[in-house]
Specification:
single chain, 375 residues, alpha+beta, Ribosomal Protein S5, domain 2, Alpha-Beta Plaits, 2 domains, six-stranded mixed sheet, 11 helices, 39% helix
Length: 375
């Protein structure tokens, strides 16, 4: 059904926000590190119209149901399911003093859910830019990202970091976004694989996220425990040159492995940024490979589907490959020669069939723009 079919009027405008994939810098964000995401050419679109009764009505394409709530009655967790995300955006805007009125919102999305490509951040950011657009209020993209993080933390109840929302709001086409969590600095790094005859494949391995929430919390606690024992505010404060001495001070072998991953991953991310600035994208491949090995062996967050996909991509000629995202399922990325991308994907599909895994899906990741108005 169309917007007019559902709400009885034409929309006042349409806004969009993309999903993201992180090139490198995994589990460094809550350690005050550096991340390097790109916005993907998949997005959440919201068609919106203003209404004058202080109520919000939301629906999604393909589902005729309309969920409606009053702005002044919102409280954390008062709306359940997927509608909690737009409700959280409304609640944060109200709590932050923005002059937000009622609205009708119809959502459409081609961001895969459950693949670790930040469909929830895209949903939130699309809601924020639509509501702010209807109110004709201008807010800096980085501030919208912080508002979106607050909505997910305080309203939805998910303890997420700031990378996903910042990528969805602040990325630009043809670039990766070097986001320094400690300083808050954003640096647009040229990233155009096609100019180097390369393709960045994002392969969803379709593995169920096994124990992801509890294991994520355990990794974070391990990092925080180690930082406290080392007497530093976060593991970002430990350099690679200081790593051996730092590891010797830790009592727990598991904590040592977690620290080794974080410290070396931050260095790999910094090295990748330097190589990309120098126009040496192919040389980033070995850093991808080392990142995956570290996530597999030291951080222990891969699953067989992720490992098979990475190993197969490399055996088929990929320049570099690694799991991306929180782990325990989700996606890998593989940097391949463009004329070999189909062969790499075919090899992964064949390997998955032989292992009895679910068939993977893939997209070629073109670095895209962050959130914007469409019309």
């Amino acid at each position: 059904m169309s917007f007019a079919d559902i709400f009885g009027t034409a929309p006042d405008g349409s806004w969009r926000a993309p999903g993201r994939v992180n090139l490198i810098g995994e589990h460094t964000d809550y350690n005050d590190g550096v991340v390097l995401p790109i916005a993907l050419p998949v997005e959440v679109v919201v068609h919106a119209s203003a209404r004058a009764d202080g109520r919000i009505a939301v629906s999604s394409v393909g589902h005729d149901a309309v969920i409606e709530f009053a702005i002044d009655e919102l409280a954390p967790h008062s709306v359940d399911g997927w509608a909690a995300y737009p409700a959280g955006a409304v609640w944060v805007l109200r709590e932050s003093g923005y002059p937000i009125g009622g609205a009708n919102l119809l959502f459409d999305s081609d961001v895969p859910t459950g693949a670790g490509l930040s469909s929830s951040a895209a949903l939130l950011c699309a809601t924020f830019v639509a509501l702010l657009g209807l109110a004709e209020v201008e807010v800096e993209p980085a501030e919208v990202a912080r508002l979106a993080q607050r909505a997910e933390n305080q309203y939805v109840g998910a303890p997420v970091g700031l990378m996903d929302q910042t990528a969805s709001m602040c990325c630009t086409a043809g670039h990766a976004l070097a986001f320094d969590i400690r300083s808050g600095s954003l640096d647009q790094i040229p990233f155009d694989p096609s100019a180097d005859g390369l393709t960045l494949l994002v392969v969803d391995v379709k593995a169920p996220h096994r124990h992801a929430d509890g294991e994520y919390a355990a990794r974070r606690q391990s990092c925080e425990r180690a930082a406290a024992q080392l007497g530093v505010p976060a593991l970002r404060s430990v350099s690679v040159d200081e790593l051996d001495a730092a590891l010797a001070k830790l009592d727990d072998e598991v904590d040592r492995r977690r620290v080794r991953h974080v410290v070396t991953e931050i260095k790999r991310t910094e090295d990748a940024i330097a190589l990309m600035k120098a126009g040496r994208l192919r040389d980033v491949g070995p850093l991808f490979n080392a990142s995956h090995a570290s996530l597999r062996d030291d951080f222990e967050i891969t699953v067989p589907e992720l490992d098979v996909a990475v190993d197969t991509a490399l055996a088929a000629g990929a320049v570099g490959a690694r799991m991306t995202g929180g782990g325990f399922g989700g996606c890998i990325i593989a940097l391949t020669a463009s004329d070999e991308a189909d062969a790499v994907l075919s090899a992964i599909e064949k390997a998955f069939a032989e292992k009895g895994f679910a068939a993977p899906s893939a997209l070629a990741a073109t670095p895209s723009d962050g959130a914007s108005r469409i019309n």
